[in-house]
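In the current project phase, work has continued on tokenised descriptions of protein folds. One protein thus recorded appears below exactly as we store it.

——
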Amino acid sequence: MRCLRKYGWKWSDPNMQPIDPEQIHRAYLKKRSRQHWAILATQLGLFVSFLVAWEWAARSGLINVLLFSHPTKIWTLFVQKLSDGSLLPHVGTTIAETAVGFVLGTLLGTLLATLIWWSPFLSKVLDPYLVIANSMPKVALGPLFIVGLGPGALSIIAMACAVSVIITTIVIYTSFKEVDPNFIKVVQTFGASKRQVFSVVVLPATIPTIVSTLKVNVGLSWIGVIVGEFLVSKEGLGYLIVYGFQVFNFTLVLVSLAVIAVLATVMYQMVAYLERKLTSQFK
């Protein structure tokens, strides 16, 4: 009774007449839709309130406009850079480097996790090295990549891979180990080889974890690319940030940060959409 009242169902007959499941489901979906739009409205309201407060604080002199700029000034510079065509090459460079680093980091991490799962001996050998590699500051590898791979896009992509590959390996390998051993025993009873165990049981069971790892790698790839562009690039959003600091044009810095935030959000939403599609298929 309490559960039904929660979704708006009211009993008209105290003798407990049969209920309509479709009506209950429609009420549930309607409530979820209202909650979804309420969350979106709240998020939008907070964002708009922040922009209004920022603009007001800048124009009233509460904050230093030279350092913190304000939304209308940032928007004006963004439109100007977009109109004269000086922004898009930097955006394209950063997107390309991030996409390649994201894909390579995910693939290499998944492959390494598979190799470690496949060989228990290799797992025991590499376990302490993975822990050490995960605790190392990946930014410190930047100069090594620059010297070894040259001051170009290759070293930036290598930085993006280095930031994401270790955590991907650890998370996916842990997920491989947590697959229910009873499922593995069932297929082994029917004579399945190790390859069949992996392809039939282990990999499908860890698809949700692999896709969830993609969402983490989105942020890590952007961090790796921007840090790499700080160090070596002559083009890209990271380069614009460094250049803005050098010439004390902090509005340009904030424009670059805003573009990065929008692009990273779009990339994250694409991965989230992929996660929903794949998760629904493997349920």
About this structure: The chain has two domains: 2-63, 78-281.
